[in-house]
Hints:
This protein has helices at about 15-25, 70-85, 100-105, 150-160, 175-185, 195-210, 235-250, 265-270, and strands at about 5-10, 30-35, 60-65, 90-95, 110-115, 115-120, 130-135, 165-170, 190, 215, 225-230, 250-260, 275-280, 280-285, 285-295. It is an alpha/beta fold. The chain has two domains: about 5-95, Alpha-Beta Plaits (2-Layer Sandwich), CATH 3.30.70.120; about 105-295, Rossmann fold, CATH 3.40.50. Strand 9, helix 6 (about 195-210) and strand 10 form a beta-alpha-beta unit. Helix 4 (about 150-160) runs parallel beside helix 5 (about 175-185) and helix 7 runs parallel beside helix 8. Belongs to the methyltransferase superfamily. PrmA family.
Amino acid sequence: MAWVSxxxxxxxxxxxxxxxxxxxxxxxxxxxxxxxxxxxxxQPIFGEPGDPPPGIWQHNIVSALLAESTxxxxxxxxxxxxxxxxxxPYTTEHVAExxxxxxxxxxxxxxxxxxxxxxxxxxxxxPNPDALNIVLDPGLAFxxxxxxxxxxxxxxxxxxxxxDLTVLDYGCGxxxxxxxxxxxxxxxxxxxxxxxxxxxxxxxNAENNGVVAEFYLPKQLPDSFADLVVANILSSALMVLAPAxxxxxxxxxxxxxxxxxxxxxxxxxxxxxxWFDMDTPQFMDSWVLLTGRKR
Length: 295
């Protein structure tokens, strides 16, 4: 069976209404995405630490999957009548029949971080069985290991983790950095994320890798101080979180920050220089890793 993908441009105050109405009109699925995702204009929706996200993006794409036989013109007319929103810009795309599981799995091969450090999907054999292999399946939370920011953070952890250290992974997503720190021999590993699905994903992936790590929502995080603090999140969130991340790092401890574009690195580095002696930035593609030692 084939399908049709319908994408509708929407503002922040109409996206939910459009998505819900499409489901009522027979869509097989509907989701809301940032229209500026993966561009410099991508809009974060992080609130203050511990608070829920303040809302949805201002410029959205509502995506719906529909049966191939759907009358798109008729559907858009019904949508306009039900919502009062006329002349919504939209595009359609034919989606061929396929084995969705195999198609998804084919997108994820083992990822080499270094010769001795790999990210390996569970359906693959490890290219180097003697390496430190992190078994990770793509899930609901961000973080498959394929993004340059994750590469940078993993390589940094491999150079700095040892058995006596406590590591804090702030914005743990899938748990990949926390799992790596534990496998690299950290004495204690803690992950925190604002998304309950990320906590669930991290706990599952840690158990699947046979490692011990603790994962918390921000309001549940016990008071503690880490030798290494790593945060791979959007630069806007890093700037808001700077006092909290600095407070969580021990004196003479180290911090690693990623999720930062080249043009953002000076601004982020200047903020963290209040507490840290910052190192020379590391670059991969258009992304930056900032590191420093706390005074």
